[in-house]
Design goal:
The termini are far apart. This protein folds into two domains: about 1-115, Roll (Nuclear Transport Factor 2, Chain: A); about 115-145, no CATH class. It has helices spanning about 1-15, 20-25, 45-55, 115-125, 125-130, 135-155, and strands spanning about 30-35, 40-45, 60-70, 75-85, 90-105, 105-115. Strand 3 and strand 4 form a beta hairpin. The chain is of the alpha+beta class. The protein is globular. Strands 2-1-6-5-4-3 form a six-stranded mixed β-sheet.
Amino acid sequence: MSDANNALITRFYQAFQRLDAEAMVACYSADITFSDPVFGTLRGRDAGDMWRMLASRAKDFTLSFDNVRSDERSAGAHWVATYLFSQTGRVVVNDIQARFVIRDGLICQHDDSFDLWRWSRQALGMPGVLLGWSPMLQNKVRQQAFKGLRTFQQGR
């Protein structure tokens, strides 16, 4: 079973490397729950649309992944995304640990963790250096990400 789950996670990240959001979303169950420090918790369609939005907007994007491991019900991986943050034109190298729960051959829970302060220093420059640790700036980043997702969804 863990071989099938390793293959599922590998398929997800290979699709991500190609910016193929539909292939990524095909690895998710309909009731997927996704979480990360920027978007918070997204469920179902919102999680899939997040990947669609990010893939459609990606600039100078590369992704590497390693340490894929799994058992019968869970999996994990390490991945690094490098991209141009469109709002500031700054390059971000985001180092992420992922955890998954797998049910019936699909990912039903996906949790990404990374240092939001480190991300904000790269993405936002001096404001991120000075305030990236603060709940105020972190909440603003989350609000802007969620607003961007809703705008993307309205345009579909």
